């Protein structure tokens, strides 16, 4: 390796180091990553969780957000986010509340009164396989033409303006 090649390699390495250092400095300066700025270093005191979201068409939707134990209904559109109301979410029933106590004598009476023809002989799930068998060895792969057709239809549906 002669000296001109070594000097060229050193210049390329030094230039690359300068560019990477400049990118790192810009990312820290503009907040390119979380916690980079001084204002973003403090921890978030109140956790925010999106409980649910429902699209209303176009770019409008509503969202239920939980903040500090409160559930807020927010309207979200391309113009911004606004608070619609505060929602009270009922407590989920426990399994004991969901269970109904059955009297064994009543259950016996119901089984005795039931006609024989109403009891199923086999369940439909037992007759159908859990996973459908593939008809074509390429079905579902990138080499299958049907996969490409479904992909084109999916893209067309997403890009259609309504």
Write a structural description.
By secondary structure, the chain is an alpha+beta fold. Among the domains are: 1-34; 48-87. Helices cover 38% and strands 21% of the residues. It contains five helices and four strands. The chain has a four-stranded antiparallel sheet, with no helix packed on it. A hairpin with a 2-residue loop joins β3 and β4 (80-87). The chain is extended, with a radius of gyration of 31 Å. The mean pLDDT is 78.
Defining traits:
162 residues, 4-stranded antiparallel β-sheet, 21% strand
Provide a brief overview of the structure:
This protein has helices spanning 3-30, 95-98, 104-113, 124-127, 145-159; strands spanning 48-57, 60-67, 70-77, 80-87.
SS class = alpha+beta
Task: Please give the share of residues in helix.
Answer: 25-40%
Overall mean pLDDT: 78
Unreliable spans = none
- The beta-strand count equals 4
Discrete helix count: 5
Gross geometry:
extended
| Beta strand % | 15-25%
**CA-CA gap between termini:** 65 Å
Could you state the order of secondary-structure elements as H and E? HEEEEHHHH
| Side-by-side strand order of the widest sheet | 1-2-3-4
Please outline the major beta sheet: 4 strands, antiparallel
Radius of gyration: 31 Å
């Amino acid at each position: 390796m002669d000296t001109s090649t070594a000097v060229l390699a050193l210049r390329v390495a030094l230039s690359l180091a300068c560019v990477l250092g400049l990118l790192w400095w810009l990312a820290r300066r503009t907040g390119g990553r979380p916690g980079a700025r001084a204002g973003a270093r403090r921890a978030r005191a109140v956790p925010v969780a999106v409980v649910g979201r429902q699209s209303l068409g176009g770019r409008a939707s509503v969202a239920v957000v939980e903040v500090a134990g409160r559930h807020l209904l927010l309207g979200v559109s391309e113009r911004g986010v606004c608070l619609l109301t505060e929602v009270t979410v009922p407590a989920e029933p426990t399994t004991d509340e969901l269970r109904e106590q059955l009297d064994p004598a009543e259950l016996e009476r119901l089984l005795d009164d039931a006609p024989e023809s109403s009891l199923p002989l086999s369940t439909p799930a037992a007759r159908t396989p859990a996973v459908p068998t593939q008809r074509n060895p390429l079905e579902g792969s990138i080499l299958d033409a049907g996969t490409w057709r479904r992909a084109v239809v999916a893209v067309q549906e997403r890009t259609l303006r309504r």
